[in-house]
Design a protein that fits this description.
Strands 1-3-2 form a three-stranded mixed beta sheet, with helices on both faces. The N terminus is likely disordered. The protein has about 290 residues and is mainly α. Helix content is about 55%, strand content about 5%. The relative contact order is 0.15. The chain has a domain of about 180 residues. A hairpin with a 3-residue loop joins strand 2 and strand 3.
Length: about 290
Amino acid sequence: MCLLCDLKSAHASGSAESSSHVWSSRRAFVLAGAAAAAGAALPAAAQVEVGKSSSLRRLVPADQLEAAASQQYLQVMQAAQSKQVLLPNSHPQVQRLQTIARRIIPHTHAWNPRAKEWKWAVNLIQSDQINAFCMPGGKIAFYTGILDKLQLTDDETAMIMGHEMAHALREHARERMAKSGATNLGLRLGAQLLGLGDLGDLAAGMGAQLLTLRFSREDESEADLVGLELAARAAYLPRASVSLWQKMTKAGGGAGPGFLSTHPSGPNRIRELEANLPKVQGLYEAAKRG
């Protein structure tokens, strides 16, 4: 998961009731209603080619993981709010991100039917770090550093958002967690089902893992392609995926800080994106006409 190191130890403040109030009335930008209204029809068959998800992910219940992610996201947002670095919904950059999300979300349902029920949220944290993430269940955060330092266009920002959404849609966190601790997790789930375990402890453990999870190169490549298609269907210029990663590579001096530590860059990544541009160009043109 693409999370800032200085937020890995964030803890929620106040009771669960007050946390829920902060989430619902102050900070969460809920997009599910707009997505449902705009996304009645599923898009055509995918144009990019990605592999099948591992069946091991079934060891991690999707609903429990999404609930744990929602709680962890709330804690991160509360920590940012307490430091006065959580930007308000009225901020132009927040509104910009929300607009991009509204355009992409209706196209997520074909990749994961659960996305229809997700309460999508978008927040922006003031930080020099070049970073962004989307947790399971559609909880998105950007850091101002990635927008400001790279001087991203809307099209390039949409490529990042699509990429991060793709991780959630393709359940990469669920799969990584299952693969990295399948035996232990399976035993804990079995104990819970037999009435011997604590579901709350299980969910808390899931949330903690989300802050340290790292995706494989295969996951990253898949997120690139799915994100590219999502953005193209939302009428964002496909070639922006290439200019984005050129900027990323330049910012990292070939290696890359923050975001790039978990998002390998380089010529191979850019070449793969370039090879897939023709597959989604028609989707982009149709979206622009529509």
